[in-house]
Amino acid sequence: MVPLVRLSQRALAGAYVQNDGQLSGAELRTLATRQAGRPADAAVSALISEFANPLDQQVVAIATGRVPGASVLLTTADRPLLARRVTLANDTQYHQRFDATVAKATGVTSTTGNQVAVHVDREAFPQLHRMIQTAKKTIDMDFYMFETNETGATVSKELIDAVKRGVRVNVMVDALMAKTSPKPLAEMRAAGINVISFTNGFKNPVLHPSASATHRKLLLVDGKEGMVGGMNIGQSYEKYWHDSMTTVQGPAVKDLYTAFARNWTMSGGKAPTDATALIPTHAPVIGHDTVAVHLTTPEDHEIARGFKAAIDQAQDHVYMSSPYFIDQPIVDTLKAAARRGVKVVVVVPMKTDIFIVNWINSARINEMKGAGITVRTFDTTPKSDRDKEQGFSHAYFAHAKMLTVDGVWSGVGSANASARSQWHNQEVNLGVTSPTFAQDIEQGFFHKDIVSGRVHPGAVAKVGIGQSLMQSFLIHHSQRLPM
Description:
Helix content: 40-55%
Shape: globular
Number of strands: 15
CATH superfamily of the largest domain: Endonuclease Chain A
Strand order of the largest sheet: 4-3-2-5-6-7-1-8-14-13-12-9-10-11-15
Radius of gyration: 23 Å
Structural class: alpha+beta
Distance between the termini: 43 Å
CATH architecture of the largest domain: 2-Layer Sandwich
Oligomer: single chain
Number of domains: 3
CATH class of the largest domain: Alpha Beta
């Protein structure tokens, strides 16, 4: 490894970003000392304008001209870019207006005084295990899948142990997915856990034409803490896929319980009144994050409306990750943002776990790239591991559903950028107005992907008439696809 002191200014700036996904004020000072009176390096300037931490007070001082640094580190084109990012991230009035606009679009009022934290990749399941293992009174879960593998066995054992120590446990799984993993569900039922399938209120939910899947990933404990995100209970999610979960404490937890209770009782479960009764005393003001719980159901399209409202008011940048970019309204909203000068970066897998979706994704990716959107792929799997896996795209791919806008507002949860997730499934997201949370996501997820990910090549320039017709057919009927 080359010592940092021997690296050039350009290489050193890149090393800083690769290390932790950001540039701090202290690192900017080190870079400034290496200028030696030379004009600002364009490559270093570009890194600073995008990756400098806008909440670092030394960065703020440089961007606003209170201390020397901007003139030697940033080109004249990049100085206003950093200044704008810093201003937006630190302007509380802008944050309030942003939240109010999303609230008006969704019809959902935010709660203040929450504390949220994002957990990426292998950081997530230790939090899930902690919540289950430390539960004292209640555990409520609504997950799309509960797989029959090592992870499923571990979590089911933890839930059974919770029942043995007197915790009341409710587990809800999608009706179709429940048929694919009967063993852990049967074992939990035998141990006294209340296990039901989400039925949409229909006797035959899998076959009913109006049925929607519960695609949620929701864990609630003791009326005081919740977890949402993209990970199901399964080994791919715990160990391989690039994904995230978000924990939340504070008043917003009550709204998560309301969402859980609605689906639980719709599917024949007894209303979990013991859990909801705990909320007023166990979910007090605990932090400084403003949070709204946004849902998708066949009747509620809060997530779709929230995404559109947030992207439409972007002034600086939009970062978005989803494995399936097949919802036309989202793509159109992102394209409109890019065309008005907002920096839009989308992170996608090189290949998805659903073969036919690859054709739709490739068409959408070319469409977004044509509008000036940067499309990146996440690909950091060691070659030695790829060779051991039967299906690389199935074992390793970017599955997170995350959106940040202007370093101010974030949307995280279970909803993909697909028609079903936005308009039909049962989904749950958190809309978080918090610069610190947005910075955590940008630093720990998007910045690392933007730096290490490859530019997506898009579809081939020419496709056969058969593939073109198939793409058009699948795009037109994408709402019927099960994701």
